[in-house]
Amino acid sequence: MLTSISGKSCIVTGGSKGIGKGISKVFAAQGAKVMVAARSEKEAMATVEEIRRDGGTADMVLCDVSDWDQVQHMTEYTAKTFGGIDILCANAGIFPQVKMVDMSADDWDNVMDINLKSSFLCVKACIPHFEKSSSGRVVITSSITGPVTGFPGWAHYGASKAGQLGFIRTAAMELARYNTTINAVMPGNIMTEGLADLGQDYLDAMASSIPLKRLGSADDIANAALFFASDEAAYITGQSIVVDGGQILPESLDAIAEI
Fold this sequence. Notes:
This protein is of the alpha/beta class. Helix content is 46%, strand content 15%.
């Protein structure tokens, strides 16, 4: 089951830490050739070396995913290194917390560029490679924040994540001619370096509001992405899946207290 990505070429943007690192490692463990795309050379190389120590195949490329020229370089380097591009995991994203009263236009644009515009740029850059091989898989890392829930300080983040889901609906139709699917994973609260920076009180409060009473792991998201990237998911496109431990289900704190 889900062994069909073995030998395939995969780009993971934001692949050096957090959810992206989890995706990179899980895909490599299943035999994919993983290109870790990130802005930090040190972090990207650390992830590549970890994958290689575990017997996987990986390389890295520096890329600001909001910059078209750098995205083109990323795809061209991957195709040259691995012989093509089969899978794109558009995972890179930021989530600076700032309330609207203090948010500048530049704050808004920066989040939109890195989270939303990059999804379009990365998919666009991969299209010639999907067309050449007559197949492809795209997995977008969205979020429950924006499409389903909201949280003060993340108006720009929520809008970017909801925008990704709007993007994949039309992208699914346009990519179909290349026998390529595009789907999204919507994480809840996942234990990553970025989330840890929000403090233990935040982590404890969030865990207590989740029916499974724990935060998710990067592997939880990576495994959902793995399914979307597999041959087993070949007839699924333009869809999304929530991976949140049941976080969005309770209608009130009283419902949590009844568990």
